[in-house]
Known about the structure:
Elements: H1 9-22, E1 35-39, H2 51-68, E2 73-77, E3 79-80, H3 84-97, H4 107-121, H5 123-131, E4 142-143, H6 147-162, E5 166-176, E6 181-183, E7 188-204, E8 211-216, E9 227-230, E10 244-246, E11 253-258, E12 270-273, H7 279-288, H8 314-327, E13 331-344, E14 352-361, H9 364-375, E15 380-382, H10 388-396, E16 401-402, E17 404-405, E18 415-417, E19 423-425, H11 429-440, E20 448-449, E21 453-454, H12 456-460, H13 463-466, H14 477-482, E22 485-491, H15 495-509, E23 515-521, E24 524-526, H16 542-549, H17 551-560, E25 568-570, H18 572-597, E26 599-600, H19 637-665, H20 669-692, E27 700-701, H21 702-719, H22 724-734, H23 754-776, E28 785-790, H24 795-798, H25 801-808, E29 810-815, E30 824-828, E31 831-836, H26 843-869, H27 871-876, H28 879-905
Parallel strand pairs: 1-2, 3-4, 9-11, 15-23, 22-23, 24-25, 26-27, 28-29
Antiparallel strand pairs: 5-6, 5-14, 7-8, 7-10, 7-13, 9-12, 10-11, 14-16, 17-21, 18-19, 18-20, 28-31, 30-31
This protein binds one RNA strand through strand 8, strand 12, helix 7, strand 13 and helix 10.
Amino acid sequence: xxxxxxxxxxxxxxxxxxxxxxxxxxxxxxxxxxxxxxxxxxxxxxxxxxxxxxxxxxxxxxxxxxxxxxxxxxxxxxxxxxxxxxxxxxxxxxxxxxxxxxxxxxxxxxxxxxxxxxxxxxxxxxxxxxxxxxxxxxxxxxxxxxxxxxxxxxxxxxxxxxxxxxxxxxxxxxxxxxxxxxxxxxxxxxxxxxxxxxxxxxxxxxxxxxxxxxxxxxxxxxxxxxxxxxxxxxxxxxxxxxxxxxxxxxxxxxxxxxxxxxxxxxxxxxxxxxxxxxxxxxxxxxxxxxxxxxxxxxxxxxxxxxxxxxxxxxxxxxxxxxxxxxxxxxxxxxxxxxxxxxxxxxxxxxxxxxxxxxxxxxxxxxxxxxxxxxxxxxxxxxxxxxxxxxxxxxxxxxxxxxxxxxxxxxxxxxxxxxxxxxxxxxxxxxxxxxxxxxxxxxxxxxxxxxxxxxxxxxxxxxxxxxxxxxxxxxxxxxxxxxxxxxxxxxxxxxxxxxxxxxxxxxxxxxxxxxxxxxxxxxxxxxxxxxxxxxxxxxxxxxxxxxxxxxxxxxxxxxxxxxxxxxxxxxxxxxxxxxxxxxxxxxxxxxxxxxxxxxxxxxxxxxxxxxxxxxxxxxxxxxxxxxxxxxxxxxxxxxxxxxxxxxxxxxxxxxxxxxxxxxxxxxxxxxxxxxxxxxxxxxxxxxxxxxxxxxxxxxxxxxxxxxxxxxxxxxxxxxxxxxxxxxxxxxxxxxxxxxxxxxxxxxxxxxxxxxxxxxxxxxxxxxxxxxxxxxxxxxxxxxxxxxxxxxxxxxxxxxxxxxxxxxxxxxxxxxxxxxxxxxxxxxxxxxxxxxxxxxxxxxxxxxxxxxxxxxxxxxxxxxxxxxxxxxxxxxxxxxxxxxxxxxxxxxxxxxxxxxxxxxxxxxx
RNA sequence: GGGAGCAUAGCUCAGUUGGUUUAGAGCAUCUGCCUUACAAGCAGAGGGUCCGCGGUUCGAACCCGUGUGCUCCCACCA
Length: 907
C-alpha cells in the first residue's frame, strides 16, 4: 500500500467517527464497571461553537476517552440549552426580517416559529461536536425544552413553591426595555463612560423665594421624585426639618427627609429620591415610607404618571426636559462626570431599574449545603483553590434569584390567576381548578396562566440530574448508576450562573453533589490578548479550522497552549504545530512500512515473527536479563546496541506512562500532552528510531522490528485521548488489528528501571556534545572522525558502540587513558572524548572555547568553595546537601583539570 | 470603594514542602545540512537583573514586607 506524502485528515476523520458510532463505543448502559459520567455544558441551541466551547469539549473528550480506555463505563451526555433570551431575540429578529411583528402573533404561533428555527439551526452545534471527534452518547442527547425536561422544571418550581422557597414580590429589578424583560444581576454589564451631572434647584414651600439644589444624571426621572434627602449631620440643611419642596415642571409637593445614607461631600449634599427608578432610592423609600411614582413604561417611554412628555422615549424626553429646565431657570449647572452604566448583556440597551412583580427563589437555605459541599471537599475545584474564594463569597452573600422572564420561549410559569387576582401554583389547569375549589371554594373558575417563562438557568441547574430523568423519575436505575457525575468541565465565567446553582439543585433533589471535580477552563483570547467576540470578528470558525488543519491538529493546538485555569491566547501557530505533529507520526509510520518489507528473520534471537502476535501489551524485552557490555564487539555489536535501544525505550515508555497518569489525575492536561509529544518526537523519532535504523537498504532484524511496532502502538494509545483520529488510523495501518484503539484498555503501569534511563541520558548527552564539537570546528556531517574515549566505565560505551559510531559519524571507538594531541576535546561528566580528524583544526577557536569554559568552571568552583567555607552552612545544612556541594566541587575540579590538560595539547 | 490573582527567554508558559551544578520547555530567531521516513524536516547554537526595593535564612525565582504594572471578581454615590 502506497502511503501519501503527508497525513490527510479529512477522509480518515469521517471514516473513523462513523466506525466508532457503528460499533456503539460511545453508547453507555449501566453495567458492573464503575461509571465515569460527564454532562456537557449545554451550548445555546441556536449558537455555533466558538473557541471557548472547542476548548471545553476537547478537555471533556480527553477525560472521557482516557476513562473509557481505563476500565470505566464512560458516559458523556450531549445536549443543548434553549437559552430563552438569546434565542427569542434571534427568532424575533428573523420574524422582523420577514415583516412579522412578534406582538401580532399568539403565543402558540410564536412558539411554532421558534421550534422551526430551533430545528433548523439547532443541529449546527451537534455537527461541530461530531467533527471535533467528541465521544458523546448521541442516544442521550437532551434539550432543555424536551417534554420530560419541561416537566422536570415545572415540577421543581411547584415543589420549591410548596416548600416556601419561591415567592412572588414587587421588587426593583434590572429592566431590559428592548426585550421587555427583567434581567438577573448577572445579565447586566457595566461600562465606564463620561456622563453629565445636572444641578437643579427645587423651590422650597416657604414664604421666601428659597431653593434647594440637587444633582442628578437623570433629569427625566424628576417627575418620579417623592422626597429630597439630606444628611442629618449636614448643618447646611438643618433648618429644613419639616419643610417641603416642589418638583420643577410639575410642581408636586414633596417632603425633605433626613438620612445618613446621603454623602455630605458629593454634589450638593442633597439627593432627590426617586423610588421607582433607582435601587438605592427604592430602599430609602421603603425605609421612609415614600410613595412610588413610576414614570417610565416597560418599553422605555414616559408613562402617564410622568404627566409630561408622555409616550416619548426616555432619552428623547431627557433632552427635552433639560431644555425646559434651563429655559425656566431650574438648571443651575452642568458638569462632566465619569460614571458607570448598566447595559443588557443580551440586547445592549441601557438597563432601567424598575419596580416590577417578579418571581424569586429564596437562596439562603439552598446555598448552605452547596457551600458546605465545596468547603468540605466533596467537590474539588481545579485548578487549585483559585476559584474557591469567589465561590464561597458569592454563596455567603447570596441574594434572592429573580427567575421570571417576560418572554415566550421557555418553561411557562405554572401559576394560575382568576379574575380577582387570586393565584395558585399547579402543573395543569385541571389541578389549578381543583386547588381553587379546595382553597377558595370556587367551582370552575376562569383561570389564566402567568404569561412569563422561567430563567434559562432555572432549567440548566437541573442538568446533571434530569439528563438521567432524576427529577421526573426519582431514584431510577440510571440516575442511581450515573449520578453524581465524575467531572464538570466549564468556563469560570459561569461559576455563579450555573455551577453553584447545580450544586444547590443537586443537594436539594439528589441529596448529594452533582459532580466530584470541577475543572475550570480559562477564557480564550486572541493572540493580542483580546476576548474573542463577534463584534471584534476575531473568533475563527471551527469548521474552517478543522478543514484547514484537521480535527486532531485543532485539538492539539488548543490543548498545548492551555494551562489549566489560565486564559489561553489562541494562535493558529499552535494548530500548525499540531498538523506538523500529525505528519511526524505519519512519517515514522512510513519508515516502519519500509522496514516491514525487508525484515531479517534471525534464528539466534528468541522472537521471530511469532512475537508479532503479542499485541496485548504484555511484551517484555527478551528474558529480562539485560547485561551491559557482554560480547559487545565485532559483528554483533549492532545487535547489542539494538538491545540497548529496545530496553531503553521500553523503560522510557513505562516512565512516561506513569508521568502522564499522574498529570492527568491532577488535570494538568496540557503538560501531559507536552510530555507525550516529546516522547514521540524526541525519544521515539529522533533517538530511538535513529539508533535502530539499519543502514541504507539493509534489513532490520525481526525482534527489533516487532518491538518497535509494539512501542508505536503504545504511543498511539497514549496519545489517543488527545488526537483520536490519526492514532486510530495509524494503529490499524501498523498491522492488521482485531480491535480498535478507541476501546483498547491501557495495560498496568510498570515501574521504570532508572539505571537504563540514566544510561540513555548519558548517551544522548555524549552524542550531542560530540556533534556540537564537530559543528563548532566546521566538520561537515559527512566527514568521518576517529573517536577516543577516556573513561573509568568502558562498559558504558562498549554496549552502545554501534549507536555511537553511527550518531557521530565515527569509524571506530578506542579507549585511552591520556589526552590525545591535536584533537577536538569534549567532556561529559567525568568522561573525555577526543575527536581525531584529518582536517586542519582551527586551534585558535579551540583554545578560545576551552578558555571560556575554564573561566566558567573556575567561577562555579569559587561559588561552591565559598559555600563550603561558610561554617554556618556546614553546621545547618542537611548532610545530603553538603555531600552534593562536595560532589559539585570535585566535579568542577576535575573539569578544570581536563580543560587544562587539553589546553596543553594544543600547540 | 472591597476582594482575589498574576509578573521567569522575543512570545506562551513549567519550575510540585527554600539547596540536583550561576534557571527549564515549546514556539520564534540564528548557523549548518536537499543525510533515501519527514524542509510541515534533520543537526547544532544563541538568548534571562526570575518586575523594582527592603527583610528572614548558612542559602531565595520560591517565604515576609513594600512599591510599580497588568488581569479578574464583587459593590454600584445621586
